[in-house]
Design brief:
Length: 227
């Protein structure tokens, strides 16, 4: 079945000055992160502490659950300390698996060509976003690369967007925000973006998700053409 292209039909590009996009699961394939956190980290953590991978995962899971939605959840320093692993080094070692989602490049180029502002807004820690953008070469697409660690709150926190906008002015009523995280999208909707769009297929190793609460597309390229 062809993907339903509900969002593009609803966007009046004439009314949009800024396009703000998430990184993992929106521009880049979340398959890397799922592999990294669910397989590589438990495997290395298990090897370090003499645990089977399943035992290692069971020991790590409560920590993941506790911190979900908090800035520490996205903090590589925190996880390196907790696990005893050098996660920045592990990210670099596994960088061959970092990949864009299909069609991301075409979408980002089209936004740039249209003259609109294009900002990357991520919860990823610098030890994660820097090697990812270096490996893909995608840093060049963006006017700004904005990381929630520099604003004191993650994107799902109501304090995030006002803090960002104080330093980087834009009019949310003339802006689009695209992300794969529903809590993040809710906070953006509450902040007053003209369009808040969900990505249905953030991880190519998983099936497409059903998203009910938001305008949604399978991938960024489904929002083309930009007029
Ligand atoms: Mg994401």
């Amino acid at each position: 079945m062809a993907p339903q292209n509900t969002a593009s039909a609803a966007i009046d590009w004439e009314q949009i000055d800024h396009v703000l996009v998430d990184m993992d699961g929106t521009v880049l394939d979340l398959a890397f992160d799922n592999h990294f956190w669910r397989e590589l980290v438990p495997r290395h953590y298990g090897a370090l502490h003499a645990l089977a991978p399943e035992q290692a995962w069971e020991r790590l899971l409560p920590h993941f659950r506790d911190l979900q939605g908090k800035l520490e959840w996205y903090c590589m320093d925190h996880w390196s300390e907790l696990t005893g692993l050098n996660l920045a080094a592990l990210t670099l070692q596994s960088r061959e698996r970092i990949a864009p989602l299909p069609g991301s490049d075409a979408f980002l180029r089209a936004v740039r060509a249209s003259g609109r502002g294009l900002w990357l807004v991520t919860n990823a820690h610098r030890d994660s976003w820097q090697p990812k953008l270096a490996h893909t070469g995608y840093g060049v697409h963006f006017d700004h690369i904005l990381c929630s660690h520099d604003f004191g709150a993650p994107k799902e926190d109501p304090r995030f967007w006002p803090a960002l906008r104080q330093r980087h002015f834009f009019d949310p009523r003339r802006a689009i925000f695209i992300d794969d995280s529903l809590p993040v999208l809710r906070a953006a909707r509450d902040f007053g973006f003209a369009h808040v769009i969900a990505i249905r297929h953030p991880d190519t190793s998983q099936p497409v998700r059903v998203v009910d609460d938001f305008e949604a597309v399978d991938r960024l390229a489904d929002l083309l053409p930009i007029t």
